[in-house]
Amino acid sequence: MTTPDPDPRRTPGVAPGGVSPAETPPAEGGTYGISYPVPELRKGWGAMPLTLIMVVVALIAIGLIAMVVALIA
Fold first, then answer.
1. SS3 breakdown of the chain: % helix, strand, coil, rounded to 5?
2. Are 73 and 67 in contact (CB under 8 A)?
């Protein structure tokens, strides 16, 4: 089991004055920016999906109204 604070005299790669520069990773990566173009996002719904949704909602509403009328009559 390792301790969270190891003895620096027995830790490999630790020089007497601290860790040598070659032992630590760089602070930041050498690349920047995106690696591929981001596709343009479409804004909003198209006309066809909205029309289909409205037709389905209208058919359901007509069916519910017809059921209420059938129960009353």
1. 40, 5, 55
2. no
